[in-house]
Each structure stands twice: as structure tokens, then as C-alpha cells.
Amino acid sequence: MDPHDDAAALDRLTAAIERYERLVVAFSGGADSALLAWAATRTLGRAAVLCVTAVSPSLAPEEHADAAALAAEWDLRWRAVDTAEMDDPAYIANGGDRCARCKTALMDVLEPLADAEHATVVLGVNLDDLGDHRPGQAAAAARGAAFPFVEAALTKAGVRAISRDAGLRTWDKPAAACLASRVPYGTPVTLQVLDRVTRAESALRALGFVAVRVRHYGDTARIEVPADVLDAVLAHREAVVRALKSAGYAYVTLDLEGLRSGNLNAALSATNDGNR
Q1: Measuring CA to CA, which residue among 28, 176, 177, 182 is closest to residue 94?
Q2: C-alpha to C-alpha distance for 16 and 152, rounded to whole angstroms
């Protein structure tokens, strides 16, 4: 099996999807879930695939809008549903199991839909995701969710390559993890915090920074962009500072290491190591 053969990779994905008669796809509109929704609908037919976008304060408004736009462009059978993770005190407390709490809330709304559809819930988890701290994956799997990309041995690069070859506009879409991932573990995830992060990141995207994270440290914002964009942030320093102060931050910092998905997990790992 050649993991770099894009045609073979699509065949493997198709074969993985064909193992299921009907699917409910957790559809955030990101590169992974977009390919999964497109491939599932292409393989099983529109009537057999329901694509569901989970809406909560941790979903950026732009992502919600883009998921709806993709569903319309690709004629997906789609709906949006509200999730209630903010009703869970353990989620708000933001411990190391926050992602598990989130996926539990997601499965709480997807399972009834899947039961009504006589379908299996699937998530766009790829092989690369298995190496990070992702307790949500285990929580979803324990509730019966399946991961066709893992079954098809697809990495993130494979997902993007198949999407590019298929002409999907999401092939190079920057990763957009939930907004709660901007909040260090142990800092409560509140509506006020998520709103501040939302406004800060939206303001930066309005300035042209597409791949961006604003990590929340109380009154301090730590901006992450790809390393090759650091100079552009500095070139627009005054506008960037003005935008983040308008969002409610008193101090604005720039992470010189650049954008790193899931980097707050490093602090969690260090804490765990220190407790051993």
C-alpha cells in the first residue's frame, strides 16, 4: 500500500465508507469533515448521509456560516443542531478531559439523529490526530462513533491531497479547532472568554490573517500565526494591537514560535510528567 498514491487513498476511503449503509457525519466544515461529508455523500448517496453541524459558543461564527455554504454548494443533506457542553460544569472547569466532555455533548445530539436514520456516527479523525492528546476521540468511540479516515489509513496530508484532486475548496483550509482550545487548561471556559477570543480572531482575519490563533491568558492575548507570517503581523502592528484591545485584551503578544495546533497540550503533558 503506497500512502502517497492519492487515487489508491481515495479507493481506500471509499471502501471504508462502503462498510456502512447509512451515516451521520459530524460536519464542522473543516478540511477533514468536509472531505468526509463529500466522500460519504458521493459513495452512499445523498439520502443515506446526514451531515450535522454542532453549534455552540465554541464554534466560530465564520465556521458555522462556511459549513452552511458548503452544504449548499455540494447539495449535502445538512442540518445544524445546538450542543449543550456549556451546561456541563466539568467542561467549564477546563480540565484535561475537556475535549471528552465536548464530544460527549456532541454524541448526545448526534446519537438520536443516528438512531432515527438507522445510521452510524462518523467523525473526521485522521491518523495524525491519534498522536496528540485527544480524549474526545476515545469518548466518541466509546459511544459508537467510527473514524473512516483511520480505517483508510489517511493522514492529514492524505486528506488534503484527495480534497485537492477532487477540486474541493477546503483542501487547503487552515485547521480551525474549537475556540475552547485557545484557553489554557485550568482556566474556566466561559461565554465571556469565548466571546473575547471570537472577536479577537475575527478581527485578525479581517486584517488578512487567515491561519491564526489567539490564546487567552486573562488580559493578555498571545497571537499565533504561521512562522512565515510573523513579519506581516509586525508590519501591521498598530492595527493588530488596536483590534485585540477592541476585543477586550489589555496586552497583546506575538508567539515567535508560530502557529502550532494543540500546543496548549504541552503544558498538560508537563504537569502530568511532574505528578508521576
Answers
A1: 182
A2: 6
Question: What confidence tens digit (pLDDT) does each residue in 24-70 have?
Answer: 999 999 999 999 999 999 999 999 999 999 999 999 999 999 999 99
Q: Tell me the residue type at 267.
A: A
Kind and range of the H or E element at 10? Answer: helix 6-18
**206, three cell numbers:** 479581517
Give residue 38's Cα distance to chain centre: 17
Beta carbons within 10 angstroms of residue 237's beta carbon: 11
pLDDT tens digits, 212-238: 999 999 999 999 999 999 999 999 999
> 121 exposed, middle or buried (CB, 10 Å; 0-12, 13-18, 19+)?
buried
Residue whose C-alpha is closest to residue 185's, from 276, 79, 266: 266
- Pairing mode, strands 120-122 and 213-217: unpaired
Across-strand partners of 254?
223
pTM for this one? 0.90
